[in-house]
Design brief:
145 residues, 3-stranded antiparallel sheet, 7 strands
Length: 145
Amino acid sequence: MTNRRITKNDFFYNPFSVGFDELFKLANQTNTSYPPYNIVKASDTEYTIELAVAGFSEDELEVTLDGNKLSVVGKVTSTRETEKFLYRGIANRNFTHNFTIADNVEVSNVTLEDGMLVISLEKNVPDEEKPKKFSITNKREFLSE
């Protein structure tokens, strides 16, 4: 038996993966790494997405939720092209970041402070999906009633 590497293309031609095309495309999407971001799980129902957006003002950023697609768009409006930079290490370019979130997750707050855009998310679990706890009674007591 030879050791053969499995590639993502194997899934698209594998007869056992019929109907999962969109799932594999979603899983194999490459997303730009600019701006850098963190996804933090604060609790079982609270999450935050932190994006490092140094140099962007509030009016240059847009956060929208459309269905399950959370989009963060940064559009540079200020121009500093007249200045002569000896070194330009802080990126100053437009970007779009898309995140896919679950059906029951909502944006609860969006803040911009010290170059960090923080998007707070909250998972709302319906009562019918929450675990149910049952009290245990003694069988003898139940039968004697």
